[in-house]
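Technical annex, item 7. During the second reporting period the consortium partners agreed on a shared format for inverse folding records so that results from different sites could be compared directly. Each record opens with the tokenized structure and is followed by the designed sequence. A conforming record, contributed by the partner at site C, is shown below for reference.
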């Protein structure tokens, strides 16, 4: 069994969002990042750090103002940034983190922490889309990610049956697809998904699997037979959580850019 530990749920108080932010310096994801990956991977020390693939990270308000240039120097190519949670919470660190990652040439996107106990899925999807979770085919924006896991102090299933949880996930996914042309990436872990959602996986949904171990996970949740993204560490080498893309440059560019991207494992 992997030693997965639930991530942060709501960030601590953060500094006020910067005002008068300069216009994004959007470099094509992969120019600065690819060069850094080629020269900086020897600095990676966490489990799976030397695995083939493309490295990245995810962050939230817990990380505050991230030194993105330093992350690129370590080999990070992409970043998921917490945007929203539930119906009303927007991370005060989102603007700084999202713009900062883009300014150093990283591919970046937003993620939403799902609260199935608090508002219907369409309402939460719209809140996410209105607060940084959108997608466009500009080559530097990751499809939005839906974070599905337990919440401290609440039942693991948020009081929903397996069928009700499946309906909630599909409601969010379908609405996101209608608004952006893409299915959201689904972040989860093996035991939460299998216990709460069961033997089911929504159509063409990329898997972002949390599994803190030294070798690539092979036992997957639901009916997935492959993963796109693997969160292998919450203790470095990168700020926040460290992640790995399963494939190579061509597959990654398709994942970032294609409307009709086909998920690897479903």
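Designed sequence (site C submission):
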């Amino acid at each position: 069994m992997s030693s997965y530990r639930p991530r942060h749920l709501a960030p601590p108080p953060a500094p006020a969002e910067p005002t008068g932010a300069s216009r994004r310096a959007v470099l094509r994801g992969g120019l600065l990042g690819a060069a850094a990956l080629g020269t900086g991977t020897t600095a990676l020390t966490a489990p799976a750090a030397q695995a083939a693939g493309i490295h990245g990270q995810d962050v939230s308000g817990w990380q505050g103002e991230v030194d993105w240039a330093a992350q690129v120097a370590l080999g990070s190519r992409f970043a998921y940034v917490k945007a929203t949670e539930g119906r009303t919470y927007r991370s005060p660190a989102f603007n700084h983190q999202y713009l900062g990652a883009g300014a150093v040439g990283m591919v970046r996107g937003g993620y939403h922490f799902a609260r199935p106990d608090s508002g219907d899925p369409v309402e939460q999807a719209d809140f996410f889309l209105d607060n940084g979770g959108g997608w466009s085919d500009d080559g530097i924006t990751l499809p939005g990610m839906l974070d599905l896991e337990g919440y401290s102090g609440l039942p693991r299933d948020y009081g929903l049956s397996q069928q009700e949880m499946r309906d909630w996930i599909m409601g969010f996914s379908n609405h996101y697809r209608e608004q952006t042309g893409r299915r959201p990436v689904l972040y989860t872990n093996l035991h939460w998904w299998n216990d709460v959602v069961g033997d089911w996986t929504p159509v063409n949904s990329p898997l972002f699997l949390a599994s803190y171990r030294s070798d690539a996970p092979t036992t997957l949740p639901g009916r997935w037979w492959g993963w796109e993204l693997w969160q292998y560490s919450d203790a470095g080498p990168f700020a926040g959580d460290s992640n790995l893309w399963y494939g190579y440059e061509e597959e990654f560019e398709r994942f970032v850019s294609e409307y009709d991207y086909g998920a690897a494992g479903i």
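The first helix runs from residue 31 to 40. DSSP finds seven helices and nine strands in the chain. All partners now use this format for quarterly exchanges.
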